[in-house]
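Anyone up for a design puzzle?
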């Protein structure tokens, strides 16, 4: 199943050929110029009027990116939150939440990322608020002494002490255009605001591509430190929470599905564990699954004689209580982010410096 996001990527990447597609790309390029001008004005405002940034009286570590789509922010947030908790800090993760209200089945829901963070970081508080300042102040009132700002690079109103920016090595620069012609949320030169750049999925590109990518990152960021990261599937878990070691993957004949931004990387990660994929279904990012779609996935698994159905944590949290236990077993991939020894030291030293400095300890007034 090809999602709308796949069709859009085929358009903006240039894979779709012909005059009609060229005209559409030209129209999108015009809109990109408007978007670029708007972003430039916003950034100039905060660069000139730094006093407009608000702080909440404790260290703030931001995790963000410069492109739309999945770069690995959630697993990195889980990793850093765990490191901070091991240091004895009271951590709050601030997230705006993807959307509120109800889904197509009439059920209320929270952001899927927020639900994953709550499950993976039980010792941290997760504060959902589109207003990051209000969320930060609420977290402070509840006792947090360090804040982790999820998807925070573009949210400049909240001052931060450490800016971590992720770049997905498999799709690093948004096809060279800002939204909507490409996937860039900001110009590449915005990387100069970062304190450190994390190159995720760096093992999925060849050495030559990686060298060219690093050279461009170095030019545009002004030589900011770069940390290489890889995503590792460390095991599986069923919908009830029972853990299954990754060593059992070779016996799995699976239907896989997900509603995430980088479905191809997800599928490749599954294949690398030794799972035999008999069918793969891609849904739009943040997809709300209907009862009919859930039933259809189970039916496909029976027809193709699959013994498991695999998905991501982000998708699974929306299926809790809805998956029929008597059907094909639904398993969730447990994904973690790993750094090499040099990268581990860079991030650890930066976090130590941030915590030792005490953050911005004098909150400003106003909004």
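Challenge accepted. My sequence:
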């Amino acid at each position: 199943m090809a999602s709308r996001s796949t069709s859009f990527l085929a358009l903006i990447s240039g894979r779709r050929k012909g005059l009609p597609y060229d005209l559409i790309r030209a129209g999108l390029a015009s809109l990109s110029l408007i978007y670029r001008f708007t972003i430039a004005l916003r950034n100039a405002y905060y660069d000139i009027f730094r006093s407009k940034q608000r702080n909440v009286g404790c260290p703030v570590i931001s995790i963000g990116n410069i492109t739309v789509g999945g770069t690995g922010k959630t697993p990195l947030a889980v990793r850093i939150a765990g490191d901070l908790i091991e240091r004895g800090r009271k951590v709050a993760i601030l997230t705006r939440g993807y959307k509120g209200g109800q889904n197509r089945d009439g059920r209320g829901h929270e952001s899927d990322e927020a639900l994953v963070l709550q499950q993976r970081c039980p010792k941290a508080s997760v504060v959902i608020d589109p207003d990051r300042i209000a969320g930060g102040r609420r977290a402070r009132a509840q006792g947090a002494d360090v804040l982790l700002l999820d998807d925070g690079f573009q949210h400049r109103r909240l001052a931060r002490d450490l800016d971590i920016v992720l770049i997905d090595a498999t799709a690093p620069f948004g096809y060279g255009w800002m939204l909507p012609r490409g996937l860039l949320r900001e110009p590449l030169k915005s990387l100069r605001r970062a304190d450190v750049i994390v190159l995720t999925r760096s093992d999925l590109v060849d050495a030559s591509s990686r060298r060219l990518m690093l050279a461009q990152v170095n030019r545009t960021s002004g030589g900011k430190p770069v940390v290489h990261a890889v995503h590792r599937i460390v095991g599986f878990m069923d919908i009830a929470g029972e853990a299954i070691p990754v060593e059992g993957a070779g016996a799995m004949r699976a239907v896989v599905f997900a509603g995430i931004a980088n479905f191809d990387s997800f599928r490749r990660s599954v294949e690398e564990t030794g799972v035999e994929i008999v069918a793969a279904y891609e849904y739009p990012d943040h997809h709300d699954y209907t009862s009919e779609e859930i039933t259809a996935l189970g039916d496909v698994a029976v027809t193709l004689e699959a013994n498991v159905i695999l998905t991501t944590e982000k998708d699974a949290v929306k299926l809790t209580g809805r998956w029929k236990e008597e059907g094909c077993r639904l398993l969730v991939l447990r994904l973690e982010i790993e750094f090499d020894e040099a990268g581990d030291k860079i991030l650890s030293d930066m976090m130590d410096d941030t915590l030792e400095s005490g953050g911005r300890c004098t909150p400003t007034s106003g909004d």
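A detail worth pointing out: Residues 54-231+338-357 form a domain with the Rossmann fold fold (CATH 3.40.50.300).
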